[in-house]
Design a protein that fits this description.
The complex is a heterodimer of chains A (about 500) and B (about 450). Chain A has helices at about 5-15, 50-60, 115-120, 140-145, 155, 190-195, 230-240, 255-260, 285-300, 315-325, 325-330, 350-365, 390-410, 435-445, 460-480, 495-500, and strands at about 20, 45, 65-70, 85-90, 95-100, 105-110, 125-130, 165-170, 175-180, 205-210, 215, 220-225, 250-255, 275-285, 305-310, 335-340, 365-370, 380-385. Chain A is an alpha+beta fold. In chain A, the strands form four sheets. Chain A has a seven-stranded antiparallel beta sheet with strand order 15-12-14-13-17-18-16, sandwiched between helices. Chain B contains 25 helices and nine strands. Chain B has helices at about 25-30, 40-45, 55-65, 75-80, 85-90, 100-110, 115-130, 135-150, 150-160, 165-175, 185, 210-215, 215-225, 245-250, 250-270, 280-285, 285-290, 295-305, 310-320, 335-340, 345-355, 375-380, 380-395, 410-420, 430-445; strands spanning about 190, 200-205, 230-235, 270-275, 310, 330-335, 360-365, 400-405, 425-430. In chain B, strands 1-3-2-4-5 form a five-stranded mixed beta sheet. In chain B, strands 7-6-8-9 form a four-stranded parallel beta sheet, sandwiched between helices. In chain B, helix 3 crosses helix 6 (about 100-110). Chain B is globular. Residues about 1-10 of chain B have low confidence and may be disordered. The chains are: A alpha+beta (about 500), B alpha/beta (about 450). The interface between A and B is large, with 43 and 34 residues. The complex binds flavin-adenine dinucleotide and iron/sulfur cluster (2 copies). One iron/sulfur cluster (SF4) binds near residues 54 and 86 of chain B.
């Protein structure tokens, strides 16, 4: 099928206005929140129903044309980047809240519904949707499902997988299946569990049943500033060690504070503190004050410089925006950034942050840290300038080195942002060839032609060995040269495709 | 008009932007592609196509700047479908100046492809032929008043002659306010000494469209400022601010007009330049951007723009006396984009309204979303503008009897919405209500 024929066939299913296929209409879809790699899709389509998604997928499947689903494109690991010239199936027009069952705490949504919009729609009745990635004002629930997104409040409430109970799912051949069960546990294999976090490689969620929660009666939020990172991390352990499970504990370091303070979300952090903690407790109104008193007390015991409890909703909202906008605000201090997403045992925090600082010094790239401290989920923001030749590659390398540290101390290479294309090779820090082969075998059951989001999530064995070798040599040697060798680069899209 | 020949400023560099004053690398490279701006963008909300989102537009501009895209419809459509409402700038954590980038990109298009056809002709007629020339503006005003008063309008409506106009223009015709016999710039004295203790001197910027259609709002502005201790000057030789020209990409024409105004207001010696039209206010405050490469006028523009205040902003800044006259109405407030997003003025107009005894103010949901007026956007992109207007009308709370705002463009647009729905609603400017309250106070004395 040539491009014109494909354009016509897609238009036949969806109509003129819901298909983009002229080459110069496709540039805006060359990447998602991960910009280090880019490639043009072959077309972008905007279906509005499950049937339309299924029809499009069937057409593409029957013609061996690769495709991938895309939500708001806020993914930070490149899951929605069309490296093989995929047809992008954009789900953002499927953004309806289909039904809400307040009594049984369930809502059924289309995948393109924006995370925060769900909460906005049900907040009047006193309910909300718990998973709250920092991108919640734009990312979609379908994208959250695919990435098993986390968020600030996941410390207490759990990540996306704990909040999705069923989904209608279009398989890569165009057939439509139902997974999970709105109420109770579905018998049989836990295919829903498999699909959540599968990063768009097993099919497309087109209707999602989620749990909704009653809003907690009381909420208290504190901002605690520390002279030393070590004191801040000891505080985190201290709070949790005392048997308190806060709704959230977030940390930012000085460089991250500087970035947000330059933005519209200015809090005014002192320039000589090393870390700030944002701690939130919620629950029954009666208990919240008491728990917050204990939290403040623990902060004091760990040499906090100042600790404030929010006096108004406006103040609380500003502190939260400041935290949630921190990634985006990195643009204030650096033209480009890669945000990493490693998890470590909480108790190793101080040590790991030190090692990250060393990596930063050695590479000459600044690294800001913003993270879900309570979960040990780190987000080092590696600042670089893609206009300087070789610097993108160096940043990628630094990211990899950071993940290595996380894996080495017993953590993992992704807490919530997914593997995508970004951390493919780093999967090897955690899994043996056999482990990966088993995962690929599962994918082949759902996605036998490997048309649906090819080349993401699991490294292909043939490629791994060579790349690993090359990487290894580079890793060992780039510090000796003082700079990263210019000829070293990630594989281009065509090379990746060729090896699939 | 012939295609302007590109200057050789791009020698040795791959770019689709060949003319002077292109979108600056410093501005687009700030975008980190986080996507926070998507959901607040009215055009993205309507179409859900990232080509028509802030992130998409900035990316396309960057690609064109780097020579990866030609300056064809792939860049031009998104850049011109942008409302320049700046909602994206309010949320953007990275501080991308989307508005400025869009305006610079339009400047390139303006050079590359002088617009042809009806839209081009209309644009040239108004933007170069009428607005910059006070005399022609006055003539237009006269003509329109003649049309309204002479029975010509009645005739036109009755005979159906208006049917030749497209629907959105017919709607606009229907809601043009009654043109006053005199523009404020003629009706007001050149100098109005302050009442009470003097807090400063303010030169009134009367604007073009504002003074044709809403000269009474200009008069109300002068009275209210005056009442609150400001000496008001009305420089006679001022001209239109150039905002529409900037939005259309005609930056040279805009600069010529800006130079003139900067000089006029410098000569006036006033402490402040007051303005009641959000779009013009934002343009005046952004004059330095227009002259960023001009060694002489850049500094002058900076000094000038420092003195510019929206009327609501100035009243709160220098202190105003809460009116004692009662206005028993229930209203809602619409945030004009260039007031809230471009000038960050949100609380001041609300504070003024709340100070009026008897006035009930009910917030409308999403009050900061563009109504679709956006300069002449409702003429150039009627479909998108119409869709946004419908949403705005849906959001107006049922219990109000008026919608209040601080921009003439929005006033015209929302009037069209009221007309379309046959709703029983007044469309008012913030200072009109304040002025009314002061007048009632006078009568009570
Ligand atoms: C500033 C910023 C802050 C962030 N903070 C967090 C955070 O705190 N926690 C967190 O977890 N993430 C965070 N993220 C990452 C990102 O927002 C999440 O991964 C989010 O879940 C992606 O949703 P999306 O709609 O943008 O999906 P996209 O980026 O469009 O897609 C992501 C992946 O999901 C697949 N996909 C999309 N829709 C479907 C569907 N319906 N069915 C099957 N597959 C689908 C795509 O193929 C792709 O692989 C952040 C991102 C940014 C830019
Ligand atoms: S919010 Fe700002 S930095 Fe983020 S994508 Fe939009 S314009 Fe770019
Ligand atoms: S200025 Fe308004 S219309 Fe234009 S990109 Fe920004 S939000 Fe969208």
């Amino acid at each position: 099928m040539n491009d014109a024929q494909l354009g016509r066939a897609l238009t036949e299913i969806l109509g003129e206005r819901r298909v983009l296929y002229k080459p110069n209409q496709l540039h805006a879809y060359a990447c998602d929140g991960y910009t280090a790699r880019q490639a043009l899709p072959r077309a972008v389509v905007f279906p509005e129903t499950t049937e339309e998604v299924a029809a499009v997928v069937k057409l593409l499947h029957d013609n061996d044309i690769p495709f991938l689903p895309r939500g708001a494109g806020t993914g930070l690991s490149g899951g929605a980047i069309p490296l093989n010239g995929e047809v992008i199936i954009s789900l953002v027009r499927m953004n309806k809240l289909l039904s809400v069952d307040f009594e049984n705490l369930r809502a059924v949504v289309q995948p393109g519904l924006v995370n925060l919009t769900l909460t906005k729609r049900i907040t009047g009745q006193g309910f909300y949707y718990a998973p709250d990635p920092s991108s919640q004002s734009v990312c979609t629930i379908g994208g959250n499902l695919a990435e098993n997104a986390g968020g600030s409040h996941c410390l207490k409430y759990g990540v996306t997988t704990n909040h999705i109970v069923a989904t209608k799912f279009v398989l890569p051949d165009g057939s439509v299946i139902d997974l999970g069960s709105p109420y109770g546990d579905a018998p049989g294999y836990d295919l829903l569990g498999l699909v959540v976090g599968s990063e768009g490689t097993l099919g497309i969620a087109t209707e999602i049943t989620v749990r909704i929660l009653k809003k907690p009666e009381g909420v208290k939020t504190a901002l605690a500033m520390f002279d030393r990172v070590a004191d801040a991390s000891d505080t985190v352990s201290g709070i949790i060690g005392a048997g308190i499970i806060p709704a959230a504990i977030e940390m930012m370091d000085q460089l991250a504070m500087q970035a947000v303070d330059k933005s519209n979300y200015h809090v005014g952090y002192p320039s000589d503190i090393e870390a700030v903690l944002l701690i939130e407790v919620d629950g029954l109104a009666a208990g919240v004050d008491e728990v917050m008193d204990r939290v403040v007390e623990i902060c004091r015991r760990h040499h906090v410089r100042t600790v404030k409890v929010a006096q108004s909703e406006a103040e609380r909202a500003l502190w939260w925006s400041s935290r949630k906008m921190a990634f985006g605000a990195t643009g204030r201090i650096s033209p480009d950034y890669i945000v990493q997403d490693g998890v470590i045992p909480r108790t190793r925090l101080t040590e790991v942050l030190q090692r990250i600082a060393e990596i930063s010094r050695e590479s000459g790239l600044r690294i800001a840290n913003v993270f879900h401290a309570g979960d040990g989920n780190l987000h080092p923001l590696i600042c670089y300038d893609s206009r300087i030749p070789g610097e993108t590659e160096k940043a990628i390398q630094v990211g990899s080195a950071v993940l290595k540290v996380c894996a080495d101390v017993g953590g993992t290479i992704t807490g919530e942002h997914g593997v995508g294309i970004e951390k493919l090779e780093e999967m090897r820090f955690m899994f043996s060839d056999d482990d990966l082969a088993a995962q690929l075998a599962v994918r082949a059951v759902f996605n036998p032609k490997d048309l649906c989001n090819r080349g993401k999530l699991i490294p292909q064995p043939s490629r791994c060995a060579e790349v690993r070798n090359a990487r290894h040599i580079i890793e060992e040697n780039w510090q000796i040269f003082g700079t990263f060798p210019e000829h070293a680069r990630v594989l281009g899209p065509d090379e990746v495709g060729a090896q699939g | 008009m012939a295609k302007t020949e590109p200057e050789l400023l791009s020698a040795g560099r791959q770019t689709a932007f060949l003319w002077p004053d292109p979108p600056e690398e410093d501005k687009y490279s700030v975008c980190v592609h986080c996507g926070f701006c998507l959901e607040v963008c009215p055009t993205y909300q309507e179409w859900k196509d990232e080509n028509h989102s802030p992130r998409g537009r900035v990316f396309l501009i960057k690609e064109a700047a780097e020579g990866k895209l030609p300056l064809d419809e792939s860049v031009i459509d998104p850049v011109f479908t942008c409302l320049d409402c700046r909602a994206c700038e309010t949320v953007c954590p990275s501080g991308v100046q989307v508005g400025a980038l869009i305006e610079e990109a339009r400047g390139q298009v303006h050079h590359a492809q002088p617009k042809t056809g009806m839209t081009g002709a209309i644009e040239r007629f108004f933007l170069r032929g009428v607005f910059p020339h006070p005399k022609r503006l006055k003539a237009l005003r006269g003509l329109m008043r003649f049309y309204q008063k002479s029975g010509l309008r009645t005739a036109a409506r009755k005979t159906g002659a208006l049917r030749v106009l497209p629907k959105h223009l017919r709607e606009m015709e229907a809601v043009i306010p009654d043109i006053q016999p005199k523009a404020a710039i003629e009706a007001l004295p050149e100098r109005m000494p302050a009442q009470g203790q003097k807090k400063g001197t303010a030169a009134l910027f009367t604007g073009c469209v504002m003074d044709v259609f809403f000269s009474d709002v200009n008069c109300a502005t002068a009275r209210v400022a005056n009442r609150n201790g400001l000496e008001v000057l009305v420089p006679r030789d001022q001209i239109c601010c150039g905002a529409l020209q900037v939005h259309a990409g005609d930056r040279e024409q805009a600069r010529a007009m800006a130079r003139h105004n900067i000089d006029v207001f410098e000569r006036s010696g006033a402490d402040y330049v007051i303005i009641n039209a959000a779009g013009c206010g934002a343009a005046l405050k952004e004059y330095p951007e227009l002259f960023k490469d001009d060694p002489v006028y850049h500094d002058k523009a900076v000094a000038f723009s420092k003195r510019v205040r929206d009327i609501s902003e100035l009243l709160v800044e220098v202190g105003y006396e809460p009116p004692r006259g009662k206005v028993e109405r229930t209203v809602t407030y619409h945030d004009a984009c260039h007031l809230c997003h471009a000038q960050k003025i949100r609380s001041q107009p609300r504070e003024l309204l709340r100070s009026i005894p008897g006035l009930r103010v009910i917030e409308m949901p999403d009050s900061e979303r563009c109504c679709g007026s956006a300069g002449i956007y409702n003429l150039t992109h009627p479909e998108m503008a119409g869709a946004l207007l419908e949403r705005k009308m849906d959001d107006i709370p049922a219990e109000v009897d008026a919608v209040v705002m601080g921009n003439p463009g929005c006033m015209m647009q929302i009037r069209a919405g009221v007309h379309r729905r046959q709703a029983d609603l007044d469309v008012l400017h913030t200072v009109e209500l304040l002025d009314l309250a002061y007048q009632k106070e006078e009568k009570q004395r």
